[in-house]
Structures are given as structure tokens and as C-alpha cells.
Amino acid sequence: MKTDTYHLYSAQTYVREPADLWEKEGDPKFRHRVPRVVNFNNTPHWVVEDGIPLSVAEDIEKTIVYVTSPAPDIYVQELNRNGIAGAVLYPSVAHLAYKCLDTELLTAVIKTYNNWVIEFCRMFPKQLKAIALLNVDDPNEAVAELERTASMGAAGVMIPLYPHTEQRYDNPKYEILWRTAERLGIPISFLTDTLRQPKTSEPVFDLTLNKLSSEGDVLYSFIHQSCQYVYVRIAIASLLLSGVFARYPNLRVVVAGFSANWVPYFLTRTDEMYEVRPERTGIGADAEHSGNYERFEMAQERIGFNFTKGERPSDYFRRNVYVTFQGDPVGRQLPDFLDMKNLLWEDSQFSDRSAVPVSHSSRDFRIDKGDRSVLLASQNAARLYGF
Amino acid sequence: MVSFPIYSADSHIIEPPDLWTERIDSEFRDRAPQVVHLDDTDLWVLDGEIRMAVVGIQNQAGLRFESPELISKSGRYAEIPELTPDRYIQDLDRDGVQGAVLYSSNAHQAYRTAEQGLLSALARAYNNWIIEFCRTYPVQLKAIAMLNVDDPLEALQEMERTAKLGASGFMIPILPQPGCRYDQPQYQVLWSAAEEIGLPLSWHIGSNRAVFGREPVIDLLKHTTKDIHFQTAITTLILSGVFACYPKLQVVAVEFGTSWVLQLAESMDQAYKRYWNRAAFQFPDGELPSDYLRRNIYMTFQEDIPGIKFRHLIGVDNMMWGNDYPHAESTFPHSQEFLAEHFQGVPETEAAKIAGGNAQKLYKFPR
């Protein structure tokens, strides 16, 4: 059975920005610091600011140097040829700019990308949906960009997995962001490789404790690649445990690109800890920290957000959080096993090697007519993003 | 009730308040862990300033089933019946558990001190005490000794000493001291010795050495994500080729549950498959990082329905149940009911391994 009869909707597909997007379209003030491709040791690299590396601008086998996505009409044809009726578009490079140290530059980079991707999708509004990026260093500025891009047609927005140094999303300063997203009906996404800054004084979350040298620590880069998904757990736990979803019941958050394998452990552990530990998270939880161990230790019990009796964190996860997956065995079983209905199908192969979507048949998994979980996940994507 | 013997791969003792003041080398006596009496709780403090843990929540097994709202860190030693070996065995019997592997409740919190000599001294004192505690019931109780790995050669000596005394395994910090990582060559003596002695190494939750002097995790969010660093530690050992070089080395991830394997296996394999030609260690014969997860890593859980559901992806031979007695999270005194619920629909041979068979084999409980 051919997949193109199914009209699948992908909640996560990549688009490749033009290599000169920011140099041509960006604010001239930042022209020499925007994301750009430079040659380093005979290898093309994306860099930003004064040389912060973002990624190698070629594929692993060094066969394809960075290739820009084709024009929207060709892009849509390629999607359709692969059985995909519509796709939500995420960037290939722009999100890596969350590594910028200069917040003003980041804002400029993001605005350029947002304008471009919304324009890219504008001609095919039924097939292409744009995800805009937000800089959350200043939540009020993020809200302004959220409103601007929503009015231009963005179907969703993306924020960094971990906000600025020493902050988490349970911080009350982000309430305005959740409130606005709920009011506008715009889903907020978390994507891989979007730490605003990995350095933090919070030791428990600091993966850089595993870093031995500033350059050339090959093992650390693998540790980071393998374990960075813990940050999405932190982001979602911050929202769940501080009561954000209780206060904003119609807020929808999408976790994209991490598969669904983390979900069973996350839900089990979060519910269990909520039930057996007296500590809480959220407003008030850390307010009493004075550095004095007596006050710090004893001030924590059940101060912060408490769920209504009988409710558990996982209840809100099921209601408010959407997770993309490609068809992996764990994800397929979640709807029945954990009553996790909010799965979205993703077609994210369009990242490393090609400027056009890759046929399903080349995947490690198979999609066939009987794969109910994939079809349901595709329908969820259509509903969430209004295809 | 289940129809096979169950063994707990993760239980705890509660250190008596005078453990270190009575047993530590005299030169460290003034800096040894001591109990400070606060308004309504007893708090362990190390070296006069480092907060280790409060005793209340360590002795609230069963409360979660009766009055979970009363779970609290408040509590005093004076209110707790002394946890003697005899009482321990009685409670194991009451819980329907044949035997238990014993970890500390407080000693491992001392990994936060930067003072190497102090840490080694308190580890030796603890090891002597816990081995003595278990000696009364060697068939049922197995002691895990604690190692300071700042000086791996010194750790090696303590391994050999405690193994001779009867230790059944060794606990090491999840991350070693700042600036160090377990792929460094100085730790190879540990991997080699553990393999040769034939006893497992353990990483227990809450035993990170890389965060000198800092406050331990406090709020609920941090409790839910406490597994972060042990996952990086496992990744370090696997991706640096430690298990490829020491194929019989066994490492136990204690009290983190089991279903974390689902994501880590995928993430490691994905990173390795994409960038294998840049990897720090290239595996032989087409092996993947997840192969070593299943070959060399054991993991314990108290309750983990998803873990049981996805046991074939995780590894039936790697999963070990533990009752976490006498802590508040414990399944005591309902471990039998918990396990019966967990194993509904699971073939008995698989359930028996997870509930006790794997622990019995790894820790050499008599058959």
C-alpha cells in the first residue's frame, strides 16, 4: 500500500534556510555577526556572533555541502510525493543561534528567520505551517514577537529548552508568555539543540560538569548529544510542577524531535516523587532560601504548587503536552498503555542529508495501513495546527 | 502474593547517631558527621557546615500507604526504634523479602566534602560498621561498602580490604571530583579490580562528588530529575570503551528506576550511528552503545510499571527490584502486593528474575 494515499500530516519537518539569509535580509547593524557559513580547516561551518560555532555545514559523509530548501512549490510537491499532505516547519540553523551571548543579536536573527519562514509558508497555507522562534531573555519582548508572528500567520512558536542562565520556566516572569500563548491559541514548542545557555549554577542540571576541556573534548560532545533530552524533562517538569497548566488549562506545549521514549519514565517518576516527597516546586518553593541550612531545609515542605486532591502531574501532561514521534515501539504503545493520546507524528528526516523530504521507505520503521498509532498521531497534528 | 523468592537489591540502614564519633580515626573526630538537633528534626552535618540529610523521611516506610500527607523530613532519632539487625530481619520477614542489599542513608551524602582525608576516614568507619551489621545475618543481609575514588589506588586498597571482610559490592560517586571523569586512565585500576574481585560497583541516587559544598537537591523538580548525572556517568563509561575493555565489569544504577533505559539507549545509539567516525571509542564488530547497557549495567526500581511493560527493550536480566526500606518511598510492608500487581501477565520465569533472581545471582545470596 502506498503511503501517499494516507495524507499524513507531519508535526515536525525541517526547512533549510538560505545560506545567505541573514547577511542579505538581516539588520545591517549585525551583518558581520549573524549566522553565516565560513571555512575552517577546509570544512564549511555555520558560526554566529564573533565565531561561536553552530554546526558543520556539511553532512557526516562530507558528500553534501549545505543545501538550501527548494522554492515552496517544489517543497510541497516533494512532500506530497512522499505521502505527506502537510508539514509543520522547523529551522535547520536558526534555532542554533540560541547560543548567542548577545541577546540583541539573537532577537535580530530570530526576526529575520521568522519573517522568512512565514513568507515561505504563505503561498501554501494548507500544506505548510511555520514555527516562529522567540527570544525569552526578556519575556515581554518574547510576547511582542509572539503576537507579531501570530498575526502574520505563524502556527506555533518555539522557545529554548532551557532559558537564560540560572532560570527555569517555573519562574513567575514567564507567566505572561503562557498567558498570551493560551489567549492566542498558539502552541509552544521545545526542540532539540536549543539550550539558551548550558552554563548554570544549578549543579543538578549542569551537564557541563562532565566537560573536561573547553575544546576538543570529543567524549563530552557525545555525552551532551546522548543526554541533552534531560533538559526537556526539566522544562516540562517546571511547567507541570509549578502549576502552569493548572493556571492555563488551554495552553498547549509540543515536545519535538526527542521521540516518545522519555515519556514513560518521566511520568512515572514525576508522579511517584510528587506522592512520596514533601518538597514542592513553584512560587514560594525557593523564596525562603537564605543560605542557612536550617531555614532552607525546613521551609520546603509542601510550599509551592500543590495539585487538587486526587490529581497527579501526569494528568496535566496528558491534557496539555504533545509529543512528536516517528513510529518507535514505545510511542506506538503509549496511547493504550499510559492513556497518552497527544502524540504527533513527525517526519524529521529532512535534516542532515537532503534538501527535500526523504521517502518513508528509507526509514528504519515501516508505516502501513494498519499502523493506527501513526495515523492517529498524524490526525492529531492536523487538528493541533489547523491543517 | 508472588510465588517465587524476592530479594531487595536496594534497602537501607539508618546510621546510629554515634557511628562516626565512636569509630572514625581520632584525627577526624571533630569533623566527623554529627547529628544537630533542630526544632523538630535531627540533621546530619559534616565538618561543621555541610548539610547531609535529615533523619525523618528516612524512617517513614509505610506512611505513604496510610497517611501520605504526613510524610515529612521532620523527625528525631529519639522517636525512632533502633534499627538493629534483628529488627531488620523481622521487617524483611513481614515484607515477605528473603534478603536485602544494604546501602547507607547518610554516609553517601558525604561525597560533597572536598576533604579527601576526611571522606576516606568516614568511609572506612562506615564500611567497618555496615559489614559488622550484616555479619549477624550473612545469608539475608549484604553490605555495600563505600569508596572514595579521589585516589584510585587508595580506593583499590579499600575494595580489597572490605571484600575480605565480607562486602558484597562497592558504591562509588556518580561523578568523581570536579575536573575528573571516569574515562580518565587513573580509574582503570578500579574497573580492573572490580572485574577481578567479581563484585559489582554501584551508583546510588544522591551520591555525586562533583558538587563540592553545594546544597543538595531540594525542590520537587530536582527530585524528579535526579537521574541526570548518573546517565551521563553511564554514557561516559560506555562511550569511552570501559566496558569493551573490561567486559565482566558490572555496574548497578540504584534507585533510579529502569525505564530511563528506553531513551538513553536510543540517544546513545543515534549519536554513535551518526558520528561514529568522530567517536572517542569505536566499538568492535558493529556493536552499539546499547549493547553494553544490556551487558554490563543493572538497574533497580521500587515501582516501575512502564519498566515491566517494556522489559524486553530494557533487559529482563538487568532489572532488579528493591524495597528501599525503611525510607518513605519504600514499598514496605506491601512489597508482595506491589510485585504481584507489577507482574500481572508477566511469565513467571521473567518475574522471578526481576523480583529476586537477578539480585540473588549478582550478590551471591545462597540458594
End-to-end C-alpha gap of chain B: 20 Å
CATH architecture of chain A: Alpha-Beta Barrel
Give me the strand/helix succession of chain A: EHEEEHEHEHEHEHHHEHHHEHEH
* CATH level 1 class label of chain A: Alpha Beta
Helix content of chain B: 25-40%
Taken in chain order, the helices and strands of chain B follow as EHEEEHHEHEHEHEHHHEHHEHHEHH
Please state the oligomeric state of the protein chains shown: heterodimer
Number of strands of chain B: 11
State the low-pLDDT regions of chain B, or none: none
Cα(first) to Cα(last) distance of chain A is 24 Å
List keywords for this structure.
heterodimer; A: 387 residues; alpha/beta; TIM Barrel; eight-stranded parallel sheet; three-stranded antiparallel sheet; B: 367 residues; 11 strands
Which SSEs are present, and which pair or pack?
The complex is a heterodimer of chains A (387) and B (367).
Chain A: E1 8-15, H1 21-25, E2 36-40, E3 43-48, E4 52-56, H2 72-81, E5 84-91, H3 103-122, E6 128-133, H4 139-152, E7 156-158, H5 175-184, E8 188-191, H6 218-227, H7 230-241, H8 244-247, E9 253-256, H9 263-276, H10 293-298, H11 313-320, E10 321-325, H12 329-337, E11 343-345, H13 372-385
Parallel strand pairs in A: 1-5, 5-6, 6-7, 7-8, 8-9, 9-10, 10-11
Antiparallel strand pairs in A: 2-3, 3-4
Helix pairs in contact in A: 4-5
Chain B: E1 7-12, H1 19-23, E2 34-37, E3 42-46, E4 50-54, H2 63-66, H3 85-95, E5 99-103, H4 116-135, E6 141-146, H5 152-165, E7 169-171, H6 188-197, E8 201-204, H7 220-224, H8 228-239, H9 242-245, E9 251-254, H10 260-275, H11 289-296, E10 297-301, H12 305-309, H13 311-314, E11 319-321, H14 335-342, H15 348-363
Parallel strand pairs in B: 1-5, 5-6, 6-7, 7-8, 8-9, 9-10, 10-11
Antiparallel strand pairs in B: 2-3, 3-4
